[in-house]
Design goal:
The structure is a homodimer. By secondary structure, chain A is of the alpha+beta class. The relative contact order of chain A is 0.12. Helices cover 42% and strands 21% of the residues of chain A. At the A-B interface, α1, α3, α4 and α5 of A face α1, α3, α4 and α5 of B. The structure holds a DNA duplex.
Amino acid sequence: MLEKAALILDCFSPSGGPYRLSELSERTGLPKPTVHRLAADLVRLGWLERSGPRYLLGAKLFELGSLVPHRRDLRETALPFLQDLFEATRETIHLGVREGMEVVYLERIHGHEALRLPSRIGGSLPLTCTAVGKALLAFSGAELTEEVLSRPLPSLTPHSITDPARLRMALEKIQVSGLSYEEQEAALEVSCIAAPVFAGDTAVAALSVAVPRSRFRPAQLAPAVRTAALGLSRVLRGGGATTFPLSSLRTRPYTDKSR
Amino acid sequence: MLEKAALILDCFSPSGGPYRLSELSERTGLPKPTVHRLAADLVRLGWLERSGPRYLLGAKLFELGSLVPHRRDLRETALPFLQDLFEATRETIHLGVREGMEVVYLERIHGHEALRLPSRIGGSLPLTCTAVGKALLAFSGAELTEEVLSRPLPSLTPHSITDPARLRMALEKIQVSGLSYEEQEAALEVSCIAAPVFAGDTAVAALSVAVPRSRFRPAQLAPAVRTAALGLSRVLRGGGATTFPLSSLRTRPYTDKSR
DNA sequence: ATGTTTGTTCCGTGACACGGAACAACGCGG
DNA sequence: CCGCGTTGTTCCGTGTCACGGAACAAACAT
C-alpha cells in the first residue's frame, strides 16, 4: 500500500504538472478505485493537493523535502560561495552531487535572463552530459568511470559525448586541470564550466556556471569557479564550527546492489 | 497505514535530525515492530535513509519536494529579484508565503555571514513575529486580521508583539506604507524589513531583508525591498516576457470552473 | 438526445498489516 | 568477563481493512 502511494507520487516526477485521476490510474497501472481512495488519503495528509479534478504535489512534501539533511546541510554551506560566483559572473550557477550514475542538482541560481536548461533543483541528469556531472565522475574513482564507460552513453543533444574514448580523454583532462568543460552537451547554445568540491581526493559535489555559447569566455570564468569550489572544499573540510560534519555528506556508493 | 507512515515522517519536522527506532516509536506512539516494518518499507522507497541505527529523511523526498508546483514556480520567478535584493544589500534575504496563520519560507539566501535565525526554507513561523509575516497579514483581508487578533499572540523573543492593540496599529502602518518593519521580534539582535508582493490587492508573498541590529539602516533598505517586491509583483501579473511565464508549465490550457 | 470518458460509491472477499511476545544484539558498569 | 538494561529484530495467529470488479453518476463531446 505504501508502494502504491509511492507509485502515485512518482507520477509527478519529473514533470510535476497536474494530473487527473484517470491519468494517474493509467500511469501507475493501478485500477481507478484504488487510485481514487489512495489519492484521497494523500490529500488528507497534505502529500497531494487537489484543485477541481486535478491533483498536484502538496505543500507537506515541500516542507519535508526541505529538511532532508544531506541536501539541506550542503546547500546551506555552499550558498555563500554560489552567491560569490553569481556575483562574479552574473550567470547561471549550479550545485550538484552524484547519486549513482546521475547528477542531482541541489541548487540553481540565476538572474533575470533565464537559460533554457534541462537542469532542475531536485532533478537528475546523466553524469556524462553536463559539466557538473563530468567533474563529479572524474573524481569518483576509476571503477565508476569504467562502469559508466561500459554502458551506452546517453545524450541530451547532438553534441553530447557518445564516444567512450572521447569521454575518457575528457575525464583525464579534468583530472589534471581540476576543471570540467561542456559545450552544448546538455542544452543547445549553452556552454558550461564546472569545478569539483573535494573531500579528500574524491568529489562530494561540483559547482558550475552556465552561459550562452555566444559569450562563453572560459579564461575569465575558470578562476571564479575554481575559487568558489576550493573555498567550499575548505569549509567542508571542517574548519568552521558553523558547518556540519563531513559524514553527513556521504553520497551513496554506486556498488549498492540492494533492491 | 499511510497515516502511520505520515506520523513517522512528521517526526522529522522541524528538527530533521536523525532518529533511532525507539525514538520514533516513542514520538509516534506506535509500537516498535510496527515502526520497524514501516521504516524498512520507507527506506526501500527512498523516503527514509538509514545509516547504522539512525533514520534520516531520504533523497526521494527532496526530489519530490522540489517539484511542488506552487512552491517551485513562485520561487523560480522570484529568484532574480531576490538576487537583485541581495546584491543591493548583501544581507540575508527571505521569500515567504502565507499558509493559514503562519508564514512558510520558500527561499532564504545569504552570504558568508550567517545570521542566527529561526527561519528555515520549508519551515513556518507565526505571522505576527516576523516582518514577512506581518506584511502578508496586513494584506490578507480584515477577517484574517481579526481572527489572528482574537487569539493569544505567540512570541519568539521578549520583543515579539503580544499586545493586540499594538499589532493592529503596526498593521495599519504597514497598509499605508507598504513596508513592514520588525526589530528583534523573531531573533535577538536581528532587525528586518519586508514588502508584500501583490496580486490585485492581496499579498501572495512577501520578501524581506534581515540584518544585524547594529547596522540596521531602514532608509537605505526600504527602497531596495520595495523595488524588488514591486518588480516581482509586475512579473507575476503576467506581463513579463523576460522570464518564463507560469503558463509554460501547464501541459494543457484549462478553464477552472470548479469551486 | 446519445454515446463516451471520467469520477465516485458499494461491498464481499481475502491478503496482509498488526503488534504482543519471545529472541537477539548491543552498550555499559562492575 | 559477565550480568543486565536497552534497543533492534523476528515470528506468527488474529482480525482488519485494503482491494478492485461492477454498477452508478457526472461531465463532457458530437
